[in-house]
Write a structure and sequence with these properties.
Two copies of one chain form a homodimer.
Chain A lengths: L12 H15 L11 H8 L3 H13 L3 E4 L3 E4 L3 H5 L2 H4 L6 H11 L6 E2 L12 H15 L13 H12 L10 E4 L1 H13 L5 E6 L3 H9 L3 E8 L2 E2 L1 H10 L4 E4 L13 H14 L3 E4 L24 E6 L11 E4 L2 H12 L7 H12 L2 H27 L5 E2 L7 E5 L6 H10 L2 E2 L1 E2 L12 E5 L5 H22 L14
Parallel strand pairs in A: 3-14, 5-6, 5-8, 8-9, 9-10
Antiparallel strand pairs in A: 1-2, 4-11, 6-7, 10-11, 12-13, 13-16, 15-16
Helix pairs in contact in A: 1-3, 2-3, 6-10, 7-14, 8-14, 9-10, 9-13, 15-17
Chain lengths: ~500, ~500
């Protein structure tokens, strides 16, 4: 097996090994169904530990490059052709919210790509040791009960901790006013099932979280977008919409909005709550980025100022800790929670109690809070790297938001630019982003990109922006990118 | 703190301690918000290890008896009144599928009750050490990637293993024909969303799995029950229904049916597939108990004989391993899987990759197979204990099935017996079962109980049956239980 490892490289040896094997599979040197050396053999040959080889094989297996069967060995995957096809053959088949969610989840599994597509926390800083410790502590204390069923509402121990957690966002709720969900997307899906019927309308910010635009049409619910500016949702537009529509609810991300990267101003928040009161509007507040103010400070949640129970509050640990937990939660009146519990029972009974209990312990130990504290300067650094690279590499006609928190930046291209063409070209050059159109229910005259800065180190962000800048300039000539913005140009954010 | 522990008892000391504390909380000796001694203090006072006290506190916390805050200590819960109300105040509020699922999940959290209500694997035999080892191996090999997002279809490594797993049930499928779900209930929920619209009809066995009767009305889908006998689903009844209805699909549990405890005969299986072919009927096969034949042998799955892709196959690890994994799967044609993936994205994006990868490793190590092998004689022993206790303690007018696999036994009472009255009385005496009516979409003239024998040791099963037998005899006098069965009595199983 001709594979070289460079011990002086910053790249871990197991990754070098995995990449080397991928190259040999790609080139055909290792055809489908070839048996690979055993872990022991390869470790001996390369002079590395068995764990290193094991990790490389596990990564290849996870990516579908090889298949392993106990007692028989590890083999190059039979259907490897699908994998070694160029990435654009697998991606971009459908520029729709559903197609894009699918792409974004796949992109995470493709090695080598610089991804600005996914609003993902930085994996390399995941507190793996403390997480493993929390699992051990949970198993020690909880034993087999943690591998049984639990209630659909979620583990009491976690809900008690969550009551403390939301208090820091100004939300006062007991454990009975909380339901644990499989991430925030699941909370939105359950709330949609609870409050909206097929044919109903839901109002939301334009642009908004992709997942919501994926959920609504799957229920036959119509999404109506409302404009935003630098202070967030434009209240006059909401008021006009409320005169026309009787929406099931308004979905909003008031704090560090994804993808726009702006927060709703205090005046707008007050006006929104006032309007909701007058029109009997239910508000679903997604506070997933609420803790992730780059300077540490965050505006208080909408729910904190909700006097009449019109706000249903949602959040999760996917951005502030690790998305693989698949743990989010909804805070609402006990009566609504009771109905969400029934829907949850008719969806999947309950979330894994081990993950819930381990997370409760993780938070009780103070490890979540210290992780956030450690991450905020990192995210600020990455945001700054993205902003200054855009300043340097992007054509003058391109503009963008300057987020004070969260993971994403919203980039506005001049009219007439083809974002899907840029998307496919960028992927071919090893850079992924998300085309702006998938974040809006209605076509937008102005083309946009969402660039997420959270998951890549500053150097790679700069490389990616340089690549995108080059592509934008190339296209500038062809597609009139250099044209001045038209006079009817309305900034979305 | 006046608590006595009995070191000669078979009950673990931490449980004695938890029970002792519960009694003191219940009696008011420890009122709400009382601070409990620290773990160290109580361990010293009682001469037990700190882990023991920690486990007792964790159990109390999990049950909502106490609340703990790092740095402040452990306190008797503020809202303890809700907990110390008699259990019937919390249970049996609603004898409907949704109410009963809720009860069944709660019953698992109530200490002290002998529960024959839940088709739960035996917790005391959960392979906790190997499971923890599998988590460690997964984390070693997969690292932070395991705490990120994964694809909605599920981890490639697990789907490769599942392809092997289903092969042993006669199902030939590649990893791309499999989607990972949050248990089998989630598979059913997604398939219902895929194949049925509000107003549609779904055919199912009567009685059938409670979860399905909970899912269908939540989607506005009508459930129509078909009779069963000792050979399973009555094919003539299906044929008649197919002449009347155009069902979205038929849901069936052909092997070791829950709750009936019978399997569909080979002749019926062949007739069913033939009928499906002729009528263009889709069949959803739930094979969750397929591996759990008490004598080791199981009929092959329906899907194994499906030549025309009319069978969608579902299963999970909740019965054969541990329900807290929340991992099930659906096997279907790639085109259907692709549509389920989109629905999964609009539900909760993906299942926790750590749980998926650890389960893949657990199975690859052969630990799942050896666990099943170890459990089968246990379940047989428990079934036998239940059957002989019923023989001994139940009035002669009561009859029941003799399951060859699975976890549940279906008990038929004479007409006129009030099952909900029995349910409440049994709970007061510390015994839980499930009233039969919740397993059927239409009222049944004959009253039934489901007794699950899987989760309690033989002695406790006998105690529970003795209690139920006593209650049945008491009621016999009042409600005419001793009356001979009427001539129009049709056995449901």
């Amino acid at each position: 097996m001709q594979i070289e490892v460079d011990r002086s490289s910053r790249e871990p040896i197991y990754r070098q090994l995995a990449t080397g094997l991928q190259q040999r599979i790609r080139s055909g040197a290792l055809p489908p169904q070839t048996r690979l050396p055993t872990v022991r053999q390869l470790a001996q040959q390369l002079g590395v530990t068995r764990l290193t080889v094991h990790s490389a094989y596990a990564e290849l297996q996870a990516g579908g490059w090889v298949e392993a069967t106990v007692g028989r060995g590890t083999f190059v995957a039979e259907r490897i052709d699908e994998l070694i096809a160029p990435p654009e053959a697998q991606l971009g088949r459908e520029v729709s919210p559903a197609g894009m969610v699918s792409d974004i989840l796949r992109i995470g599994q493709l090695p080598g790509l610089i991804s600005l597509a996914k609003a993902d926390p930085a994996h390399e800083f995941f507190p793996m040791r403390n997480w493993q410790r929390a699992i051990e502590l949970a198993l020690e204390a909880g034993g087999p009960q943690l591998m049984g069923y639990t209630t659909a509402q979620g583990e009491q121990s976690l809900r008690s901790v969550l009551a403390e957690v939301v208090r820091e966002r100004g939300v006062s709720a007991g454990p009975d006013e909380i339901i644990v969900t499989n991430g925030v997307t699941n909370g939105m899906s359950l709330i949609t099932d609870l409050l909206a019927r097929a044919g109903d309308t839901v109002l939301l910010e334009q642009p908004t979280y992709l997942g919501m635009l994926n959920i609504l049409p799957s229920r036959g619910v119509r999404a109506v977008g409302l404009p935003m500016d630098g202070e967030g949702l434009v209240i006059e537009a909401l008021e006009a919409a409320l005169r026309r529509e009787r929406p099931a609810f308004l979905y909003t991300i008031p704090t560090f909005q994804n993808p726009a990267g702006v927060s709703m101003s205090p005046a707008r928040r007050a006006a929104l709550l006032d309007l909701a009161e007058r029109h009997g509007l239910m508000i679903v507040e997604d506070d997933i980025y609420g803790r992730l103010g780059h300077a540490g400070a965050s505006p208080p949640s909408l729910k904190a100022a909700d006097r009449s129970g019109r706000v249903i509050y949602l959040s999760s640990f996917s951005k502030s800790l690790m998305p693989g937990l698949r743990i989010g939660y909804v805070v609402a009146a006990p009566e609504l929670i009771g109905r969400l519990v029934y829907l949850r029972q008719a969806q999947d009974l309950c979330s894994p109690p081990l993950m819930q209990r381990a997370l409760a312990i993780f938070i009780e130990q103070g490890w979540w809070q210290s992780h956030i504290k450690r991450m905020l300067p990192r995210y600020r650094e990455r945001r700054d790297a993205l902003l200054s690279a855009m300043e340097r590499f992007f054509p003058a006609e391109v503009s963008w938001t300057r987020p004070q928190g969260g993971f994403s930046c919203w980039v506005t291209l001049p009219r007439g630019s083809s974002v899907s063409d840029l998307y496919m070209s960028a992927i071919t050059r090893g850079v992924a982003f998300t085309p702006g159109e998938v974040f809006s229910p209605a076509p937008n005259p102005q083309p946009h990109l969402r660039l997420c800065f959270s998951a890549e180190p500053p150097e790679r962000l700069a490389d990616a922006v340089a690549t995108l800048g080059g592509l934008l300039r190339e296209r500038g000539g062809r597609h009139g990118l250099a044209e001045p913005a038209l006079s009817d140009y309305v900034p979305v954010v």
